[in-house]
Amino acid sequence: MIRCDELTKYFNGTRALKNCSFEITEPTLTGVIGVNGAGKTTLFKSLAGFLKPTSGMPSLFGEEAFQNITVAQNVMLIEEGMQFYPGVSLYELLDSYQQFYEDFDITLAKGLLNYFNLPGEARYERLSKGMASTFRLILALSARAAVTLLDEPTTGMDPSVRKDVYELILKDYIKAPRIILISSHYLGEMESILDHILLIDEGRVLEHGALEEFQSLFVAVKGSPEIITSLEEKLQVFEGKDFGPGIRQIVVKREEFLNLHLWDEVKESLTVNSISPEDSFIYLTRRKGGGIHELYDS
Predict the structure, then answer these.
(1) Is 90 exceeded by the pLDDT of residue 236?
(2) Distances 138 to 3, 16, 153 between C-alpha atoms, Å
(3) Are 214 and 195 in contact (CB under 8 A)?
(4) What is the structure's pLDDT at 293?
(5) Tens of pLDDT along 5-32?
(6) What is the pLDDT of residue 267?
(7) Given strand 2-11, what is the order of strands in its sheet?
């Protein structure tokens, strides 16, 4: 249903996306993960048909996304900078969206307004940052669009509200399965609801796959400095640090480590632990030149 082929986008000579290629054909809750400035918002706006690509093409439902009415009627994008008619109430905004999106669930929308204590007579421009984020999310979920794009949906929310919101997204997805993409630079707090990860760094797609694959991407290997140093000569090391005399640890890709086919006696002298998806994200997007440990150990 979503297909990107070598999608590239420049703004005044600055590259925001570089040769992004991926495909999503089934209902999914996918986390679009990347640091600030990685290209997540540009990707979402391109998928929604708001931006014309510099090259490549995003297509949805088999049609080119840019300024396509079919795409517009079946895609819902929310972001912090959304503009609404000034001076109208939240109820009036719900009504206008109900007229555009065929499957808009007005009962759900009003129920969520009550749940989050948002008065329907209030004006959007007078809401706090967190309340405005909550209202945008209510719009997105109630639209029941075939493709729902949530760009940093919890901006300004308190931690307790964010937890509620992620549970809401999961429940709504179970109730009405569709393609939901959630962008964030915080993977840990929404990891429990995701089934896939799309990792973007410097405008490029680094990884796209099931969350389970992401969970097994890296391992931390700990052992004597002599053995660990010999491994460092053979593997790409994403982090290395010493735990006092006689113990050193490195973080490497699991597949590369397994491909070494180490002797059993060497394996028995090592401790190998998995790395969390959140830490995997950090290792993949870390600035070049090493981490804090390398800075202080140099």
Answers:
(1) yes
(2) 27, 29, 10
(3) no
(4) 56
(5) 999 999 998 999 999 999 999 999 999 9
(6) 79
(7) 14-24, 2-11, 55-60, 63-64
Q: What is the dihedral of CA 188, 192, 198, 201, to 10 degrees?
A: 0
Distance in angstroms (rounded) separating the CA atoms of residues 76 and 146: 8
Render the chain in DSSP notation, one character per residue: -EEEEEEEEEETTEEEEEEEEEEE-S-EEEEEE--TTSSHHHHHHHHTT-S--SEEEEEETTEE-TT-HHHHHHEEEE-TT----TT-BHHHHHHHHHHHSTT--HHHHHHHHHHTT--TTSBGGGS-HHHHHHHHHHHHHHHT-SEEEEESTTTT--HHHHHHHHHHHHHHHHHS--EEEEEES--GGGGGG-SEEEEEETTEEEEEEEHHHHHTSEEEEEE-HHHHHHHHTTS--SEEEE-STT-EEEEEEHHHHHTT---HHHHTT-EEEE--HHHHHHHHHPPTT--HHHHHH-
Domains in the chain with CATH codes: 2-214 (3.40.50.300), 216-297 (3.30.70)
Residue 43 has pLDDT above 90, yes or no: yes
Region 207-214: mean pLDDT is 88
